[in-house]
Specification:
The chain is an alpha/beta fold. Helix content is about 40%, strand content about 15%. It folds into two domains: about 5-175 and about 225-255, NAD(P)-binding Rossmann-like Domain (Rossmann fold, 3-Layer(aba) Sandwich), CATH 3.40.50.720; about 195-225 and about 255-330, UDP-galactose 4-epimerase, domain 1 (Alpha-Beta Complex), CATH 3.90.25.
Length: about 325
């Protein structure tokens, strides 16, 4: 079976996707600097200790020999918090763009010609049309989104001039947990909505809802929530496409259905049986009102379908993981 290098494989999406790749029989090497990922995720995903390498992607010389004999790279390693990116933009460009350029140089040295890239719906900024098709205007409104859009431009140039075949997956809102591997969200600090809603429900400390004056049904932001298992399956489908000689392409990965923040809050209350206290705060810089995917190309070209992305299933899996982790922490 092909040999795959996964960057950021100790993180949330990276570890679950690694688990899926190993289930398929791929040989997987993971590179992660553990600045945002978790060492325990390596073992939980099933990666052998000898196949994990702790390093920064900017260490081009150390990264290069790890790519010897590699058939494709799945590139997750990036900082992902929109709010943080507006406070520390240089950090995001240095890590997300600079780290990727180093990786691409190491791949070129070893003649690795296939890449699956973890991008984001944030490249669209404030969309004109919802659901958002892949040919929508690229106009990010945060340094995070801009850093991903920059990498997409680089990949397009390398496809044209160097023959680097790549699939870009523009995620919408990844969430949920993978019970089979006991992997879920454990960001530090946590910035994602569903775990923050759980925390508010358990502690009684109100969660901040950023803005209730958006042009949506209840004034809160609308997002397309996709189960982490469905997202991981999209990466496997993208690899199959590239390994089969497929051309470069950008795909949206979402369900096509949006929920407001308050609708997610109500789903959390229903699943957990707990009240979620909240307060309304000002809008956050860089937040679009509505981000919902048109994922028809992914469905038609890669034969992918979301199978686990009902809101209550997402919340249910995430809640079981949250309870387990809370019990472990005591």
């Amino acid at each position: 079976m092909p040999k795959i290098l996964v960057t950021g494989g100790a993180g949330y999406i990276g570890s679950v996707t690694t688990h899926y790749l190993l289930k398929r029989g791929f040989e997987v090497i993971v590179v992660d600097d553990l600045s945002r990922g978790h060492r325990e995720n390596i073992a939980l995903s099933g990666v052998a200790p000898a196949n994990f390498h702790q390093m920064r992607l900017q260490q081009t010389g150390a990264l290069t020999p790890l790519l010897s004999g590699v058939d494709a790279v799945v590139h997750f390693a990036a900082y992902i918090a929109v709010g943080e990116s507006t406070r520390e933009p240089a950090l995001y460009y240095s890590n997300n763009v600079g780290g990727t350029l180093s990786l691409l140089e190491a791949m070129a040295r070893q003649n690795v010609k296939r890449l699956v890239f973890s991008s984001t719906a944030a490249v669209y900024g404030d969309p004109v049309k919802v659901p958002i098709p892949e040919d929508a205007r690229i106009g990010p409104v945060s340094p995070y989104g801009d850093s991903k859009a920059m990498v997409e431009k680089v990949l397009a140039a390398l496809d044209r001039y160097r023959g680097l075949k790549n699939v870009t997956l523009r995620y919408f809102n990844a969430c949920g947990a993978e019970p089979e591997a006991n992997l879920g969200e454990a960001h530090d600090p946590e910035t994602h909505l569903i775990p923050l809603l759980f925390k508010a429900a358990v502690t009684g400390e109100p969660i901040m809802i950023f803005g209730n004056d958006y042009p949506t049904s209840d004034g809160t932001c609308v997002r397309d929530y996709i189960h982490i298992g469905d997202l991981a399956a999209a990466h496997v489908a993208a690899l199959d496409h590239l390994m089969g000689g497929g051309d470069s392409h950008a795909f949206n990965v979402g369900t096509g259905v949006g929920f407001t923040v308050m609708e997610v809050l109500k789903a959390v209350e229903k699943v957990t049986g707990k009240i979620v206290p909240y307060r309304i705060a000002d809008r956050r810089d860089g937040d679009a009102a509505e981000l919902v995917a048109d994922s028809s190309q992914l469905r038609s070209k890669l034969k992918w379908e979301p199978k686990r992305s009902g809101l209550e299933e997402i919340v249910g899996d995430a809640w079981r993981y949250f309870e387990e982790m809370s019990a472990v922490k005591g």
